[in-house]
Specification:
- By secondary structure, the chain is α/β, with parallel strands linked by helices.
- A 5-stranded mixed beta sheet has the order 5-4-3-7-6. The chain has a two-stranded parallel ribbon with strand order 1-2.
- The protein is built from 3 helices and 7 strands.
């Protein structure tokens, strides 16, 4: 059996939207481009045909990838859970860097949803792995490439 892929409700919705767009817009557009390129004659030297076939291959691969992830998805909605102050998948964590006195906020999400600029950490990242299971008020030492950083967990939100 395939390994379960954790994702938030928002992450699942984004994947479903992308899948819908690929199937209803991108796939028909590329099929039409291939048909149009075929009409131009010799396929061996037809760059438009080869480019369209390559794009079709990419689209079909992405469709299979998304369908695979959705079929193995374990959608976790933390808004339905009681907030225990404990860091789990899907929670938003407000941290205080004890070395620099800076505050940062991260949401722990699935690998496909990760976007560090948007404050979304992959569950498999070193920071997220160090935070999961800890509670509000805990001090967590996290090994990063530049050394060790200590964070205090100020607040855990189940939003």
């Amino acid at each position: 059996m395939a390994e379960r892929v954790p994702m938030t409700k928002a992450g699942e919705a984004r994947l479903r939207e992308e899948l819908q767009k690929l199937k209803s817009e991108d796939r028909p557009r590329v099929i039409a481009a291939i048909a149009d390129a075929r009409e131009h004659g010799d396929l061996k030297e037809n760059a438009e045909y080869h480019a369209a076939r390559e794009q079709q291959s990419f689209i079909e691969g992405r469709i299979q990838e998304i369908e695979g992830k959705l079929s193995a998805a374990q959608v976790i909605d933390v808004t339905t859970m009681e907030n225990t102050g404990r860091v789990i998948f899907g929670t938003t964590v407000h941290l205080f860097n004890l070395d620099t006195d800076e505050q940062v906020t991260y949401t722990i999400v699935g690998e496909d949803e990760a976007d560090i600029k948007a404050g979304k950490l992959s569950i498999s990242s070193p920071i997220a792995r160090a935070l999961v299971g800890k509670s509000e008020g805990d001090v967590v030492a996290i090994r990063v490439p530049s050394g060790t950083v200590e964070y205090e967990i100020e607040q855990v939100e189940y939003i």
